[in-house]
Write a structure and sequence with these properties.
245 residues; alpha+beta; T-fold; eight-stranded antiparallel β-sheet; 6 helices; 31% helix
């Protein structure tokens, strides 16, 4: 395990031919992502854009790609995903973490691995099977008690991401109205075809409040589990197929 972007990062390879150099390659990519896209590090490329020292058109191809993906997500979610902050700066964290995990998984795939898990702070992409030869089992943390798991899901070749209060408290806002506090929900977990897709829609759907679960209901290839501030949970109709007792 390492810490990047102030968050714990885990790479687990089950395949017998696992090489520590390949794990290091994933961690190196996480380090690169942190150095390039950190909203808080003054030395990051994103900070150079936010400070006016660098124009987006003069930024790296990767930075321009991320901005394009963020704009695409904004359009797909009717504006509930927006990296533009009230002070005029940009914060790509709602998308770039999941993308980093996904691209870390892609590094392992290109190197021939079939069975692995890549994770940053609970957002993960799993491939194949775990060390027991079964689907990867992932716990959904209780937003009211960090030591309790409220649901367990079994996944293979999927991504899962959660947005909510959890470790950092309330940090997601409605970009359509920054004065609108999201108070009716405390956690939203999304399962998608990969963690990049799951993460970006988890961020946007959390910003929608209770309506986010209904957005997911009609989003092909995605399932969601929402925990309300009243302790009541709702899930999309297909989420139950992943739940294990």
């Amino acid at each position: 395990m390492r810490t990047y972007m102030t968050m714990p990062c885990i790479v687990e390879i089950v395949d017998a031919n696992a090489d520590v150099k390949d794990i290091e390659a994933v961690f190196d990519y996480f380090q690169h992502t942190d150095e390039s896209f950190s909203y808080f590090k003054p030395t990051s490329e994103l900070s150079a854009i936010n400070s006016g020292k660098l124009k987006l058109e003069d930024a790296s191809a990767e930075m321009r790609e991320i901005f394009a993906l963020c704009e695409k997500t904004k359009e797909q979610t009717d504006g509930f995903f927006d990296i533009l902050q009230p002070d005029g700066t940009y914060n790509t964290s709602g998308l770039v973490k999941g993308l980093a995990v996904h691209r870390g998984a892609e590094i392992l795939r290109r190197r021939g691995y079939k069975n692995f898990c890549v994770e940053i702070a609970g957002d993960m992409e799993v491939s194949g099977h775990n060390e027991d030869g079964t689907d990867w089992v992932i716990g959904i943390q209780n937003p009211f008690n960090r030591y309790e798991v409220i649901k367990r899901v079994a996944l293979t070749n999927k991504g899962i991401a959660t947005s909510g209060v959890y470790e950092r408290g309330s940090h997601i806002y409605n970009p359509k109205d920054w004065t609108d506090k999201i108070e009716k929900i405390v956690g939203l977990t999304v399962i998608g075809p990969n963690v990049y897709e799951a993460d970006r829609f988890a961020t946007a759907c959390y910003a929608m409040g209770e309506e986010g679960i209904y957005f997911l209901e009609y989003l092909d290839g995605f399932e969601g589990y929402l925990v309300g501030s009243n302790g009541i949970a709702m899930m999309t109709t297909g989420f139950a197929k992943y739940i294990i007792t």
